[in-house]
Amino acid sequence: MATWFLKSRSVLQCVKTRAGLHQIICNRSLKGASLHSKALQLEDDLDYSENEAWYFPGGAVPFTSKINFIADSSEERIHCYRVLDNSGHHMLSNTSKLISKELAVQLYSSMVTLQMMDTVFNEVQRQGRTSFYMTSHGEEAINIASAAALSNEDIILPQYREHGVLLWRGFSLQEFANQLFANKADKGKGRQMPMHYGSNKHNYITVSSPLGTQIPQAVGVAYSLKMEKKDACVVTYFGDGTTSEGDFHAGLNFAAVLEVPVIFFCRNNGWAISTPVTEQFRSDGIAVKGRAYGIPSIRVDGNDALAIYDAMQEARKIAIKEQKPILIEALTYRVGHHSTSDDSTKYRAREEIEQWKADRNPISRYRNWIEGNGWWNEEQESTLRGSVRKQLMNAIGVAEKAERPALTDLFADVYHDMPTNLQEQERSLTETIRKHPQDFPSGFAVASQI
Ligand SMILES: Cc1ncc(C[n+]2csc(CCOP(=O)(O)OP(=O)(O)O)c2C)c(N)n1
Ligand SMILES: [Mg+2]
């Protein structure tokens, strides 16, 4: 391998072969076409003399006599793709890219449902009826429009503020309520914190609290899709704060090298609980980081449903057809508190929140567009809101009254044969509940004999 650094141009052929070999060793699944295009790229580089360039994997590296550090930022920031302007007028000259009336209305109805569901479930938590909640207020367009651009076969690895994707896929308001109340009908058997949704049926991998763990996992899932030659991709969502985790960087690098169909979707909402993005990184946001790893990347207006839909559709096409990762950075704002355990007015100005809520609201902007098309009116609005409210009230009533999961479920499903330490813990918990029933919520099915 030391011959790599041989200076003579006469060894170029040898270097070319080595570059080819290097690629094969790195990734045996590389298709012939891809190798061929890399070889062509090297041919183009032949214009350089040996004094002008070194040949390294990836192409020729020209020499310069100027000492020149790559700038820490470019003069102009990466542009942000949008289709609708602030008042909901479309900016495209080619209007054929716009969506059908049916889909447009479906997107709007789902965004409103998500907003209402968040408002009501958040209230329920404030009343002390559930233990925790997180709204996606301000990020409704990201949730719904990104989901709408996918096929249900695409696998989602979420962070936690993307329950709208699950809503779009058909997870019912009753199923959401069952999870939040941790009742017997909850698919997770009440073992997860509220908001930690998951559903096999909807190809939605269960939320996991430690930030960023979903990112390298998504790359692994995408690698399996690649091996099985599936016509599908993986989408993993995460926030701006999560890009400071090592898992983000490891995940991007693996995805680029393994050439897998994964879409990294970053919701850059300005805050990671109380940490603003200005204290999180000094780069031009997240999109620029994709390039550093060799990943095609785009910045999108996260409050423009049509832009999100369009970008996601394109990203999906590239990811599957070209078998490569894509990074999408959606600029938005976390209008709500981080969670019900947070009061964001303690660390940010109310005016900032109000400005995003009023002037940059993704739902009202989109409503202006569909109303302008004659596809929506006030009567439809009140019918939709009335119906969603009724469904929510009903779902909450049912979920709250439902039986709790059996206590034994707390210890099941991890091991085929329960180890003795878990058996001991189960016995001890059952005993404690029997002795101090007043300290535990009622309605547990405690095993009679363990
Ligand atoms: C590894 C890890 N570190 C810290 C936390 C605590 N924590 C939970 S959410 C959060 C903020 C994440 O911000 P971001 O990724 O921007 O997502 P957002 O909440 O803005 O949607 C933090 C620090 C955690 N869950 N996991
Ligand atoms: Mg954030």
Automatic annotation (TrEMBL):
Cofactor(s) in the UniProt record: thiamine diphosphate
| Family stated for the protein in its record | Belongs to the BCKDHA family.
**Transmembrane domains' residue ranges:** none
Q: What is its EC number?
A: 1.2.4.4
Q: How is this protein named in the record?
A: 3-methyl-2-oxobutanoate dehydrogenase (2-methylpropanoyl-transferring)
Species for this entry: Daucus carota subsp. sativus (Carrot)
Q: Please provide the record's keywords in A-Z order.
A: Metal-binding, Mitochondrion, Oxidoreductase, Potassium, Transit peptide
Organism domain of life: Eukaryota
> Among its keywords, does the record have Membrane?
no
The principal location of this protein is: mitochondrion
Give the UniProt entry's GO cellular component terms: mitochondrial matrix
Molecular function, one GO term: branched-chain 2-oxo acid dehydrogenase activity
Source organism phylogeny: Eukaryota, Viridiplantae, Streptophyta, Embryophyta, Tracheophyta
User: What Pfam families does the record point to?
Assistant: E1_dh
Q: Where does this polypeptide localize?
A: Mitochondrion matrix
**Biological process GO annotation list?**
branched-chain amino acid catabolic process
**Family matches, as PANTHER family:** 2-OXOISOVALERATE DEHYDROGENASE SUBUNIT ALPHA 2, MITOCHONDRIAL, 2-OXOISOVALERATE DEHYDROGENASE SUBUNIT ALPHA, MITOCHONDRIAL
Keyword Mitochondrion in record: yes
- Record field: catalytic activity: N(6)-[(R)-lipoyl]-L-lysyl-[protein] + 3-methyl-2-oxobutanoate + H(+) = N(6)-[(R)-S(8)-2-methylpropanoyldihydrolipoyl]-L-lysyl-[protein] + CO2
Q: Which residues form the Dehydrogenase E1 component domain?
A: 109-405
Q: How does it assemble?
A: Heterotetramer of alpha and beta chains.
